[in-house]
Recover the amino acids of this structure.
């Protein structure tokens, strides 16, 4: 099976011209060369001209994609009192207080894809740093997941809110939807993500900001994008 997949990948890769593509061209090409049998996720990879080792060049943020991601994330809210009711009414999958922290600690329970916490619970949630941190699940005020506005936070995540963060090699990896989405919806989502990343450009970043950009499906080869629009004007 692996050998077959390898051959299919190579065949697909050979159909990708070695030139920069517009988003519209790249989306259409990714669909044309698709070989996987499932509804793949479309991903955007942006290599930035920053050095993440320096705190003043860290790039991170969130964006609510206009057309969502094609699936609803399972959301855990850790809160107290009235905020638990608000979270439940907003559609959170799991809601609780200290007992949720205990469940994660003692049972290794991780049946969720996003965590929201109210500020008063962060003393307890902080104990989960070593468990949630490496998985990118630790609530953070900068991404709106430590907040008193739990209902709004739940709705945004359910609607397709994406968190992006530059990795140690200076690259942002983020999903923009499913390959089954109409072309224009994938293009809109990609543009929204790129706009958010451009807006998050640190003042300390010098030279060309978006060094390279690639679009690909889960199993498919990368398709190089034309980065000119992202470096010359507001996209």
């Amino acid at each position: 099976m692996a050998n077959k997949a390898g051959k299919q990948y190579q065949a697909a890769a050979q159909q990708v011209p070695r030139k920069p593509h517009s988003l519209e061209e790249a989306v259409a090409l990714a669909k044309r060369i698709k070989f996987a049998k499932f509804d793949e996720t479309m991903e955007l990879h942006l290599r930035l001209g920053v050095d993440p080792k320096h705190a003043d060049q860290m790039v991170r943020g969130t964006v609510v994609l206009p057309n969502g991601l094609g699936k609803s994330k399972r959301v855990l809210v850790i809160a107290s009192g009235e905020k638990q009711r608000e979270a439940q009414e907003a559609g959170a999958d799991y809601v609780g207080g200290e007992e949720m922290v205990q469940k994660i600690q003692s049972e290794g329970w991780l049946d969720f894809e996003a965590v929201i916490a109210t500020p008063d619970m962060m003393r307890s949630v902080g104990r989960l740093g070593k468990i949630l941190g490496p998985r990118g699940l630790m609530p953070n005020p900068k991404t709106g997941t430590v907040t008193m506005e739990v209902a709004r936070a739940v709705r945004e995540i359910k609607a397709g809110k994406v968190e992006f963060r530059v990795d140690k090699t200076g690259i942002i990896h983020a999903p923009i939807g499913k390959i089954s989405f109409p072309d224009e919806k994938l293009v809109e989502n990609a543009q929204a993500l790129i706009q958010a990343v451009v807006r998050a450009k640190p003042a300390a970043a010098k030279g060309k900001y978006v060094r390279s950009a690639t679009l690909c499906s889960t199993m498919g080869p990368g398709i190089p994008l034309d980065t000119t629009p992202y470096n010359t004007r507001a996209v």
Notes: Residues 13 and 221 are 5 Å apart (CA to CA).
